[in-house]
Amino acid sequence: MSSGVLEEYSRDQGPVTQPAMPAVVVLAESVEEVQHVMRCAHLFKVAVVARGTGTSLSGGAHAVSGCIVLSLERMNRILEVRPQDELAIVEPGVINADLNLAVAPHGLMYAPDPASHTISTLGGNVATNAGGLRCAKYGVTRDSVLALDVVLADGTLIHTGHTTFKGVAGYDLTALFVGSEGTLGIVVGITVRLKYLPIQTRTLAAFFPDFPAAAAGVLAIGAARVQPAILELLDGNTLGVLDAAFQSNLAARGGALLLIQTDGFGAEAESAVVRKVLTQAGATVEAEDGSEAAMLLDLRRNARGDGVDDDFRVGEDVAVPRSQLVHYAGELERMAAEHGVRLRLVAHAGDGNLHPTFWVNRDEGQAGMHRLQAALDESVRVALGLGGTITGEHGVGQYKLRWLAWEQSAEVLSLQRRVKEAFDPLGILNPGKAIT
Amino acid sequence: MSSGVLEEYSRDQGPVTQPAMPAVVVLAESVEEVQHVMRCAHLFKVAVVARGTGTSLSGGAHAVSGCIVLSLERMNRILEVRPQDELAIVEPGVINADLNLAVAPHGLMYAPDPASHTISTLGGNVATNAGGLRCAKYGVTRDSVLALDVVLADGTLIHTGHTTFKGVAGYDLTALFVGSEGTLGIVVGITVRLKYLPIQTRTLAAFFPDFPAAAAGVLAIGAARVQPAILELLDGNTLGVLDAAFQSNLAARGGALLLIQTDGFGAEAESAVVRKVLTQAGATVEAEDGSEAAMLLDLRRNARGDGVDDDFRVGEDVAVPRSQLVHYAGELERMAAEHGVRLRLVAHAGDGNLHPTFWVNRDEGQAGMHRLQAALDESVRVALGLGGTITGEHGVGQYKLRWLAWEQSAEVLSLQRRVKEAFDPLGILNPGKAIT
Ligand SMILES: Cc1cc2nc3c(=O)[nH]c(=O)nc-3n(C[C@H](O)[C@H](O)[C@H](O)COP(=O)(O)OP(=O)(O)OC[C@H]3O[C@@H](n4cnc5c(N)ncnc54)[C@H](O)[C@@H]3O)c2cc1C
Ligand SMILES: Cc1cc2nc3c(=O)[nH]c(=O)nc-3n(C[C@H](O)[C@H](O)[C@H](O)COP(=O)(O)OP(=O)(O)OC[C@H]3O[C@@H](n4cnc5c(N)ncnc54)[C@H](O)[C@@H]3O)c2cc1C
């Protein structure tokens, strides 16, 4: 195996703090192959790091030294679409957007749509309980997963869950595997519930003078008791980055942008209410037609830019209770100023899930890195102090482990370890990730 | 403690197959009292059966011999309603409907609404992952629970989950506790996400010649890609029972009734589509005004009648993939005829969740009971054969344990036991329930 391949599979898109190389990369093509890998790994006590397409932003798919990287990307068949049952059964390597292409002709959609929907796998989405743009209305990955096929640490294949919408036989192992970041088993089959493709959508672009004003707009929509499908917030710096990259002219239109999409039979009426309350809240609101709207949402999905996070730039993923959005946005600006780091901010605002990106110039070296770390730590502490969480959707992975004990008590941490031991007594599944 | 009290707390509303008396009933009034009970129980290895209001239909709250029945019904305070954060924090003994009364003035609702919503507790709803009428659109209990306070088997108090809409730090212990039927810990605090009270609702009553035709109507609504909030199906025998009990005249209007409620900004438009497709499907469709609609839904909620299940009457709770509804309805009628038992049937049809009630006359004694058991067993086997589950929402409890291994593999059963051991090594929490 060439060292180029090993290198390529040694990391995901999250910051690397503990560089490590795998001993081998396996590109599994069948459930049996996955079972075989796990049986061998179990026998020889070798660590196994499952991997979709490595778009994780928290180092969940980073190699640990001498491990087997078990890539599921080749297991990418959509096994079944059952339009009347409103479900689909897929292999883990299927790309999120490909499933949506396959089910759209039936008037159906797979709702959870991480911004990485064209590049990330459903197995990775399941393993991280991925969120996305439509989650405030349609829920996160867990809410759409009905059943799983999982290969356990010793190679045993199990099936959890049900192919009915509801089912409560036994413990909800399906939900436990969702979000477990490859530490409890390898997901080799996924049964998802599909939702109805909305009969219509309405998209509004609301430009505000600044981020806190736009965050207040989110609360105004909530107070009007309208539930948009999409409610995304971009700050002025992000608009500037997008303008530079894609020749758009967003920054000229305002200091912060709230993108709202309503959908379904009530889309028009909901959109009218949203327009009214946001205008009252001081926004300049424009209705976008189909192609403009799609373009704006695509820009939002690309709001991370294409750089990969590293020592000098880190994208965060905190969430706060919605009432704290305005306050927290202000706090982030204060922190950036105090620590002398630069900040841009996008948010799945309907969920209170914020992605601030902090960065410093590379030529600042260690000093810059330390200021960056201090800003990151404070952003996490302040979010927790407001009743928030260290990770809304990206997962703890390797990078956020140092913050986990700030959020969870010693008792919860130890209970999680006992759960882990029940599934993986030898500790070979993605060691050093997700839990401490 | 009087034997009357012990008797009262010795069983829930499910059939009793292993009659047993508790040693003591504790009506806990605080988290500390619950912790104290668990510490003592742990020390003396005494079984503890948690209890809300005992409306379980599967014996989940039945006493086991010499146990402590730990009732949470007095811990019934709504601790906090946070309208801007769209969440509420409650003690476990709060009655489901009381929470809805408390949050309605804020334009909010707690979505999961079991037909027992005026008599069951949120702690019980969480422990069974209760479903209800609005689940097809709004999800089950698990989808509304953000965080839990749980007293573990040894008295340790932990907090799981997050007060944000999204959060993926650590394993989803919250989801694991939901539906665990008091076997992993005692739920002493619940943080729920609230949804928006719909701006309007539209209710249709569609009468069909028979149950299979009505079930086909459910699929027709699905094919039109309209998602009603409520989609309940009642067969002719149920209509007759309701008419007798409540002086209604439903049976005269048709052989089966499909009750449909659409809600939200699109309610009117959705209702028009539903009316059209159901008329085409052969139904007589009538729009119900507010009071009539409420009355019909109340009748549906009372469709179980007031008898408690026993050896001669058992209500079932299977679910099948939606495409199998028509076929399965036919199968149930065939089984009833073949086994010489009587049948009536209601269904949360939008979810494919059916509640057939089988019964025989009491004076038939053992012979009748055997025929009833044979019919029940077959109804479960056939549902499983169609890709269904033995329990859509009521839980396995004690009564459905004999069917669990028909649905779950030996590997899953053993994995569940290992999870149980990680939480409750002495096996004192509700032994002999939920899992084998
Ligand atoms: C531009 C961009 C935008 C993004 N936007 C979002 C967003 O909006 N919402 C969001 O939630 N995330 C987002 N992400 C993060 C990332 O895309 C998600 O976490 C995604 O779910 C990871 O999928 P993947 O296939 O790349 O998994 P990987 O990165 O390969 O792996 C992620 C984790 O899952 C485990 N894993 C992968 N496959 C399996 C399997 N089959 N069985 C068991 N474990 C497995 C890995 O071990 C690792 O712990 C974004 C990332 C990028 C680069
Ligand atoms: C008329 C009627 C209609 C019904 N309709 C529905 C319906 O539509 N959907 C549905 O899902 N169910 C329905 N049910 C069943 C029942 O109401 C639900 O299962 C309900 O959730 C039970 O709540 P409870 O407070 O009565 O709990 P109990 O019956 O007291 O207990 C149920 C289970 O939960 C455990 N438990 C209770 N409280 C706690 C706690 N605080 N911590 C840990 N474990 C606990 C018990 O040990 C037991 O295993 C109906 C029942 C009746 C009688």
UniProtKB/TrEMBL annotation, chains A, B:
Recorded coiled-coil stretches: none
Domain FAD-binding PCMH-type: 18-197
Keywords: FAD, Flavoprotein, Oxidoreductase
InterPro entries given in the database record: FAD-bd_oxidored_4_C, FAD-bd_PCMH, FAD-bd_PCMH-like_sf, FAD-bd_PCMH_sub2, FAD-linked_Oxase-like_C, FAD-linked_OxidoTrans_Type4, Oxid_FAD_bind_N, Vanillyl_alc_oxidase_C-sub2
Cofactor(s) this protein cannot do without: FAD
The protein's name in its UniProt record: FAD-linked oxidase C-terminal domain-containing protein
Organism whose genome encodes this protein: Arthrobacter vasquezii
